[in-house]
Amino acid sequence: MKPPRVVLCMKWGTLYPAEYVNVLHQACRRAITGNFRFVCLTNEADGIETGVEVFPIPDIGLDEWHYYNGAWPKLAVFLSDLYGLTGRALFIDLDTVLLGKIDAFFEAQGPLVAIDSRPWRHKTGAPRTMSSIFAFDLGSLGFVVDRIKAERDAMVATYKIEQDYLHGVVPGIAYWPQDWIVSFKYHVRQPLLIDRFRKPQRPAELARVLVFHGKPRPVDLVRPPPGNWDRFPHHGSGAVDWMQSYWKDNGGQV
Question: What's the pTM?
Answer without folding.
Answer: 0.96
